[in-house]
Amino acid sequence: MPLLELRAVSVGYGRNRVLQNVNLTLERGEIVTLLGANGAGKSTLAKSISGLMPAEAGAILLEGEPIETLPPAERLRRGIAHVPEGRQIFAGMTVAENLALGAYASPDADKSERLEFVWALFPILRDRMQDLAGNFSGGQQQMLAIARGLMSRPKILLLDEPSLGVAPLLVAEIFRLIVSLRAQGITILLAEQNARQALSIADRGYVFENGRITLSGASKDLLNSPDVAERYLGMGSATEVSGAASAALAGRLRGVLFPDAAPAGGAST
Ligand SMILES: Nc1ncnc2c1ncn2[C@@H]1O[C@H](COP(=O)(O)OP(=O)(O)OP(=O)(O)O)[C@@H](O)[C@H]1O
Ligand SMILES: [Mg+2]
Predict the structure, then answer these.
(1) How is the chain split into domains, by residue range?
(2) Which strands make up the sheet holding 57-62, listed edge to edge?
(3) Atom of ligand 1 lying closest to residue 191 CA
(4) Distance between CA atoms of 219 and 31, rounded to whole angstroms?
(5) Over its length of 269 residues, how does the chain's per-residue pLDDT go in tens digits?
(6) Cα-to-centroid distance, 102 and ligand 2 (Å)
(7) What is the residue-wise DSSP string for 182-228?
């Protein structure tokens, strides 16, 4: 049984259908990435899982149990933590207060142990517990947001664009951290516009286009095309020669992620 399963989930804002008929699974211990252009529906999907947006139709199963009607706090208690796009940390509150918010649904007994856990991951937080979060850089705020998410001892961490507005050096650190969280048994759903970096650490990916999944598969299959690797994902020359199927898949991926780019073989760059 998958850890999380979405079956034919549809979500909308008013009459505007944002997600249509989404089927998606997360197996224990995976990093799964959601890719897609601006407005494709990645954040809406994360919100529908954490409960910030109600599903209008379909089912969301956590370890086989339907959760789609549960409020966000109950989903958090059951192990789904959401690190939202734009971080949403409280700039006027201290690091300690921000972290405490992440543990609000947890028993008190767990809290000091969880602090030790996040301090081990982010030593800077231990030293700056009484600092205002607003004094942190973008990358440090992102780390604080992730740490806050980890305070509830989640089974599933929903990470929405953790690289957004973060300096490149810290982006690399955040991606390394995500890999280490998987090694500790946390299952991760990673929404990213940075397709190359996301696919390089993910086990599988889903590509969204106008609220529908148009492509999904193993990360290596999504990446495994010299054309995509060289022209669009900035990986330099590719070493593997892909088969026809993976080249076709990669061509679709390119079309979805980079709709404005010149077609393969086109003259303009
Ligand atoms: N609060 C809202 N009210 C109405 N429509 C919204 C709202 N938030 C998002 N939408 C619409 O829902 C669609 C999907 O948005 P969503 O934020 O899920 O996309 P996204 O893939 O996360 O995009 P981005 O890469 O820009 O973060 C867009 O068409 C957007 O205009
Ligand atoms: Mg988004």
Answers:
(1) 4-223
(2) 16-26, 4-13, 57-62, 65-66
(3) 22
(4) 10
(5) 999 999 999 999 888 889 999 999 999 999 999 998 888 899 999 999 999 999 999 999 999 999 999 999 999 999 999 999 988 989 999 999 999 999 887 777 788 899 999 999 999 999 999 999 999 998 999 999 999 999 999 999 999 999 998 998 889 999 999 999 999 999 999 999 888 889 999 999 998 888 999 888 899 988 874 544 443 354 433 334 445 655 666 666 666 666 565 444 433 33
(6) 21
(7) HHTT-EEEEEES-HHHHHHH-SEEEEEETTEEEEEEEHHHHH--HHI
Contact 233, 196 (CB under 8 A): yes
Length of the chain (residues):
269
For CA atoms 131, 102, 199, 51, give the dihedral sign. Answer: negative
CA 37 to centroid of ligand 2, rounded, Å: 9
- Using CA positions, which residue lies closest to atom 7 of ligand 1? 13
Residues with CB under 6 A from ligand 1: 13, 16, 18, 36, 38-44, 85, 193
User: Taking the domain 4-223, which CATH number applies?
Assistant: 3.40.50.300
Contact 37, 256 (CB under 8 A): yes
Rounded to whole angstroms, the maximal C-alpha distance in the chain is 63
